[in-house]
Design a protein that fits this description.
Elements (H helix, E strand, L loop, with lengths): L3 H14 L3 H14 L4 H13 L3 H14 L4 H13 L3 H8 L32 E5 L4 H7 L3 H6 L3 E6 L4 H5 L4 E6 L9 E4 L3 H4 L18 H15 L12 E6 L9 H4 L15 E5 L19 E2 L7 H9 L3 E5 L2 H9 L3 E5 L13 E2 L2 E8 L6 H20 L2
Parallel strand pairs: 1-2, 1-4, 2-3, 5-6, 5-8, 6-7, 8-9, 9-11
Antiparallel strand pairs: 10-11
Length: about 400
């Protein structure tokens, strides 16, 4: 039989889906009054404070939940991401080690017989072979592969086990001895570590984030091939100088639909339509998958050059990006790729953005060439796009006059 508290929580979930957050929060507190040890009620309150951007209140209620259930995995995972979002990285990375136990995490922790390196244990990396394995999405790999050169500097021979379509790019990272795909059996190694455990192993704080870019490189031959294609199609007349050409801007507006936060982080191309009126800009589609179909046909909200069928892997995408002046992207893998390549990127963030983007900042300590455009309120992409269009117009004028 369903308890009264659970009935109230069902109502809270319905109200949350309707965007009636204050009402949903009041109902969640009612559920907690009915059952003061109900962890689902604590979880509902935390989710709602997250939706509302009340991060300090969220953290307070996570701690209250942990006082009731000290070993609660989901609460510990939530505390980790909240601390990271607040910039309290030292404790956040420690808590983030719980992630492999959290519900919905994409990977089970491999059961290697070799010990895990953690930066503080007695293992000297000199002469050791260290296996680093990726564990989440493409964007996570792009963001945290920056630590491999630091491992090599400590004397490690580094093997990286990564997603198949990233292998070529990862092989080019300084310090990578061997890159294998996530379906390959690793060669012999002495130690291992998950990729997103490296910030903890290196004791990363906001001040010590390794942010030297670029740390990913596109292939020079591929860059030249894309340069030829773009020069043939984007010049307004047969023989203008390179300095007089329009601004080349890549667009990516949606992430993987399977991502837990995709409804909040992804846009429709139609939402970006104000950008189409900015003069002296040629747009290039970087959007693949189902959302990429929005760019096809005469009714597309923004006319753009579309070479996505020729982007066979992220190495091709990197080479195309190397020929662009700017990329405007939702919070998805191409934004990280552009930042890792050291190219200008404007990243569009939902009101409740992921922990890696911290709070209220317009820049990112992870990517020096990135500018952040945040929703001022939940769901308000129109304000974001209006600001982007205004800044793009200013940039295109100044660029064209160079």
């Amino acid at each position: 039989m369903i308890s009264q508290a659970e009935t109230q929580l069902d109502l809270a979930r319905d109200l949350r889906r309707q965007g009636r957050l204050e009402e949903a929060l009041a109902v969640s507190f009612k559920a907690l009054e009915l059952d003061e040890r109900n962890m689902n009620a604590y979880a509902s309150i935390v989710r709602l404070y997250d939706d509302m951007g009340a991060v300090e209140e969220l953290l307070k209620w996570v701690e209250k939940g942990l006082a009731i259930s000290p070993g609660n995995v989901e609460a510990l995972g939530c505390r980790a991401m909240t601390l990271l979002k607040l910039g309290r990285l030292a404790q956040g990375w420690k808590d983030y080690e719980i992630r492999f136990q959290c519900r919905g995490f994409p990977l089970s922790k491999p059961n290697y017989s070799q010990p895990q390196w953690n930066g503080a244990n007695p293992y000297d990396l000199t002469g050791k072979t260290l296996l680093v394995y990726t564990e989440q999405g493409f964007g996570d790999t792009f963001q945290f592969i920056r630590y491999v050169p630091l491992l090599a500097a400590r004397g490690a021979r580094v093997i990286v086990k990564c997603q198949h379509s990233l292998r070529w790019l990862i092989e080019q990272v300084k310090g990578v001895a061997v890159a294998i795909t996530d379906t390959d059996t690793p060669p012999r190694f002495d130690l291992h570590i998950p990729l997103l455990s490296l910030p903890l192993a290196f004791g990363t704080t906001l001040e010590s984030i390794p942010a030297d870019v670029p740390y990913l490189q596109a292939d020079a031959h591929r860059i030249a091939l894309w340069r030829t294609k773009l020069q043939a199609l984007s010049r307004p007349n047969p023989q203008p100088s390179e300095s007089s050409r329009p601004l080349r801007v890549g667009l990516c507006w949606a992430g993987r639909p399977q991502h837990t936060n995709d409804m909040r982080r992804s846009l429709k191309l139609q939402t970006l339509s104000p950008l189409a009126s900015v003069p002296n800009v040629v747009f290039y589609c970087l959007q693949k998958g189902e959302p990429g179909k929005e760019a096809r046909g005469p009714s597309a909200a923004i006319k753009m050059q579309n070479f996505t069928s020729a982007l066979y892997d992220f190495g091709d995408t990197a080479a195309l990006i190397a020929n662009l002046d700017l990329v405007i992207s939702a919070d998805t893998a191409p934004a990280h790729l552009v930042g890792a390549l050291g190219k200008p990127v404007w990243t569009l963030l939902p009101f409740c953005a992921e922990w890696r983007w911290l709070l209220d900042r317009k820049d990112s300590p992870w990517y020096p060439t990135m500018k952040l455009f945040r929703q001022p309120r939940p769901g308000d992409w129109n304000s974001v796009v209006a600001r982007v269009a205004e800044e793009l117009a200013t940039l295109s004028v100044s660029y064209y006059k160079k």
